[in-house]
Amino acid sequence: MPHIALISSSIRTGRKSHRVVLYLKKYLEEHQLATTEIVDLKAYDFPVFHERYSRQPEPTIAMQEFREKILGADGIIIVTPEYNGGYPASLKNVVDLLYDEWHRKPVAISTVSGGAFGGTQVITSLQFTLWKMRAWTVPAMFPVPKVQDNYDEEGNATDKEATDKRADHFVQELLWCIEAKSKMEQEAVN
Fold this sequence. Notes:
alpha/beta; Rossmann fold; 5-stranded parallel sheet; 5 strands; 45% helix; globular; FMN_Rdtase-like_dom
């Protein structure tokens, strides 16, 4: 069974995007699709990094732990809110912290907003950054409009049936990419 790390990008007080992280974790576990782990940037409370991980003379234990979680995951789901048409500095900070660790890592993106467009303005800029880091971004997206109306604080979807249907397409694309990467790596060894 693949292991998926879910990055909760917002560190704001009263954040709503974390609800989607909780929902996706439950979805993956309820359907026994993957083992999961939430990588909550709010819990890390990282400073702004002055250099990437590989160039730091003494990375902190928290930086080492974050790096290991990214390396150890077969795939990543990034859940990010839209802040003024962009994604949070907390997410940019940790994406830029690593480099080789993102190489060919399957990454799926879920964007979240309190408005009607579900954070879709974030997709292009985040996807471009991940491409530059050589990550393998999954074509399927999971935009979440009006998050405050569609998920409760525990990550339960208001319309579970419709949300699960959307999540299935999103997650299946990520799982396909994880499996394809695994097969390609096995062929390269043989």
